[in-house]
Amino acid sequence: MGPVISPSSKERICTSVEKGIAQGAKLLVDGRQQPVAQYPKGNFIRPTILEDLPPSSDLAGTEIFGPVLGITRVSSIEEAINLVNQSPYGNMACLFTSSGAAARKFRYEARAGNIGINVGVAAPMAFFPFSGWKESFFGDLHGQGRDAIEFYTEKKVVVERWPR
Description:
Blueprint: H1 7-22, E1 26-29, E2 48-51, E3 68-71, H2 77-85, E4 89-90, E5 92-95, H3 100-109, E6 114-117, E7 133-134, H4 146-151
Parallel strand pairs: 2-3, 5-6
Antiparallel strand pairs: 1-2, 4-7
């Protein structure tokens, strides 16, 4: 992982992790104070994992933009979809399941632009469509995926009728 953008960003992320712990999450992996030897003054945060993050916590309602994974377990697919859909954000949502029916339901009903089934969603690159929804989207077009293809494509509509 590279560094986060600034010292204030690093501080914001670390403070968010502290809040998550204070609000009931269990710290499984702590990457906050793990210096990188070659860059002792760098803004590095290693991967951090919080388990049992309460859906009502500040961290659960924040797009942290740092290497922090908050795990929230649910007891049904309906509860999982509701958890995603009640958020004002819609960048990504992931479901880990052994049920094909649950995966299909989540894929079509979860209101997020990037869906992962049994895989975390990677940070999009130019060849990977990015499609944040709700408050996770900024701008007029999604710069990748279908919008980008359509932006650079001359579309043609052809209507035909072949009478006997």
